[in-house]
Amino acid sequence: MRTPVIAGNWKLFKTADEAATLVSGLIPLVKDTTGVEIVIAPVFTVLDRVSKLTAGTPVKLSAQDCFWEEEGAFTGEISPKMLRDAGCSHVIIGHSERRQYFGETDETVNKKTKAAIAAGLTAIVCVGETLKEREDGIMNDVLKRQVTKGLEGLSSFQAIIVAYEPVWAIGTGKTASDEQAQDAHKYIRQVIKETFGSAPAESTRILYGGSVKPENVKGLMTQPDIDGALVGGASLKADSFGAIVNFGK
């Protein structure tokens, strides 16, 4: 069985005090939740403080990005080793916003993923097509390229989570239908099977990301190949993220 993962990507929101308020409100809502892996991804500047607040709770800590070198003359970057030191167990890699605004490529995703795993982090590797790519009928080509190139050369998938995020559904209020999401997840799992083998395909958790809310999470989670959610805006409020985490109740 693949344990569901509900991960909250806070993006560029929350100062230290605001983050502390959010976490303090979230913990009572999820402290007794079982059977779900809970992850939150704040900005770099609040990781240490949030780590102290989540210690001893079911809530795990993720960063939103990392660099592929451990240290060196790379101004502005943060290494996986430093994220571990700040209390992180996970890191998001290749989010569509990183690809769209900051030049992330399949090659840099691959380098970051390998570096994160080597440092002992679980990598949440994002893939997904734009609206134009979907309308042009090349969605599967895009997903296959991103999965095979982004995960190329990995010897183990134990520390890999894949997040499917249709770019057209991020921050737009649009959500892929349960069936559309399932079709994409099924295809991604098939690509993993064909490229890396049956065992990684069966064990790898694939999350859906794209305007996930308390109102639509249950339908998504009934799909056989959807193993959780990468939540954006709804993770910025304790009650809405808590409701998503507790989708099974």
From TrEMBL:
Q: Which EC number(s) does UniProt give?
A: 5.3.1.1
Task: Say if the entry is tagged with keyword Isomerase.
Answer: yes
Q: Where in the cell is it found?
A: Cytoplasm
Give the matching Pfam families.
TIM
Q: Does the keyword Cytoplasm apply?
A: yes
An example of a Gene Ontology cellular component annotation for this protein is: cytosol
Q: Binding positions for substrate? A: 9-11, 171, 211, 232-233
Where the protein is mainly located, per its record?
Answer: cytoplasm
Q: What class of enzyme is it?
A: isomerase
Which GO BP terms, alphabetically?
gluconeogenesis; glyceraldehyde-3-phosphate biosynthetic process; glycerol catabolic process; glycolytic process
Give the reactions, separated by semicolons, that this protein catalyses: D-glyceraldehyde 3-phosphate = dihydroxyacetone phosphate
Which Gene Ontology MF annotations are present? triose-phosphate isomerase activity
Subunit: Homodimer.
Q: What biological function has been recorded for the protein in this entry? A: Involved in the gluconeogenesis. Catalyzes stereospecifically the conversion of dihydroxyacetone phosphate (DHAP) to D-glyceraldehyde-3-phosphate (G3P).
Name the chain's protein.
Answer: Triosephosphate isomerase
Which species is the source of this protein? Geoanaerobacter pelophilus
The beginning of the lineage is:
Bacteria, Pseudomonadati, Thermodesulfobacteriota, Desulfuromonadia, Geobacterales
